[in-house]
TrEMBL record:
Single GO molecular function: S-adenosylmethionine-dependent methyltransferase activity
Listed InterPro entries: Methyltransf_11 (IPR013216), SAM-dependent_MTases_sf (IPR029063)
A GO biological-process term: methylation
Methyltransferase type domain mapped to chain residues: 57-153
Coiled coil (residue ranges): none
Entry keyword set: Methyltransferase, Transferase
PANTHER family: TRANS-ACONITATE 2-METHYLTRANSFERASE (PTHR43861:SF1), TRANS-ACONITATE 2-METHYLTRANSFERASE-RELATED (PTHR43861)
Species of origin: Aequorivita antarctica
Domain of life: Bacteria
Protein name: Class I SAM-dependent methyltransferase
């Protein structure tokens, strides 16, 4: 099935979001420019020492995390579908005098634009929901990894995406393994709920089984799958801050975050 029209709708929405997010308190550009990392504890702990590693960041938005990895000593490339986001990323890279490469393309087409092999392929927080099928995504990840390299994803839990958040209170509306695209149209954006922009978005739900199976079938060995109650971001309704500054559901009825680490075998 051809999803080019849906990708184009999403690209236009993210082009509008990029400038709004860049100026938002959510992304805290003032402190980021002064050296504050944009990374959270999950990815920092999982990746460890990345100095001198080659890292590919998929769906990098305007490059904050990519540039944070570069500050930690990695040689980074960031990819995103939004040309406005990539323009801001390149501008920020120049302002900070870093040496990151940014490429504008649909993440599924990454191998057509990036030929290098990487020690680490990374993606995080609100990325795979923009993709209709994870098999070509996983295949691309395997193509871009060096033998012995690893892929890491930290992402919002698929149960959280079963709810329609455009109504209050949210209602469980979408299937855990739903194949059909989900279209939503609403005012504002998570980084600025008061913005007058209208977000028009197509998304797809992906179960943990689909994530794991897609990566495994692409030749990656799953090292772990972990699930967590606590999110670094207060983007779902009625979350409460815990003692570590993370955000949780009061009843902890379902996890908000999962992470997967998968390695490409040396012989693959």
């Amino acid at each position: 099935m051809n999803h080019s029209d849906k990708f184009e709708t999403n690209r236009k929405t993210w082009n509008t979001k990029a400038a709004i997010h860049f100026e938002s308190d959510f992304y805290d550009m003032q402190n980021f420019r002064k050296g504050k990392t944009s990374l959270n504890k999950y990815e920092i702990e999982a990746l460890g020492d990345i100095s001198d590693k080659k890292l590919l960041h998929l769906q990098c938005h305007f490059g904050q995390d990519t540039l944070s990895f570069a500050r930690m000593g990695a040689k980074c490339t960031g990819v995103d579908i939004s040309d406005e986001g990539i323009m801001l990323a390149k501008q920020l890279n120049a302002d900070l005098k870093l040496d990151v490469s940014f490429v504008c393309c649909n993440v599924l087409d990454t191998s057509e634009y990036v030929s290098e092999k990487f020690d680490i392929v990374f993606t995080s927080y609100g990325t795979i929901g923009w993709l209709p099928d994870l098999k070509p995504w996983a295949k691309m990840i395997s193509e871009r990894l060096k033998p012995g390299g690893f892929f890491y994803i930290v992402e919002f839990h698929p149960i959280a995406w079963m709810f329609d958040y455009t109504v209050s209170p949210p209602v469980m509306k979408y299937g855990y393994q739903q194949k059909e695209a989900i279209y939503e149209e609403y005012e504002g954006t998570y980084a600025n709920i008061d913005s007058e922009m209208v977000s028009k978005e197509y998304g797809w739900n992906h179960s943990l089984g689909e994530v794991i199976t897609s990566l495994s079938e692409a030749g990656l060995r799953i090292e772990y799958l972990k699930e967590y109650d606590a999110s670094p971001y207060d983007i779902f309704p009625k979350l409460v801050k815990n003692d570590e500054g993370m955000f949780e559901l009061t009843d902890k009825m379902y996890p908000l975050i999962f992470e997967v680490k998968a390695k490409k075998n040396s012989a693959t």
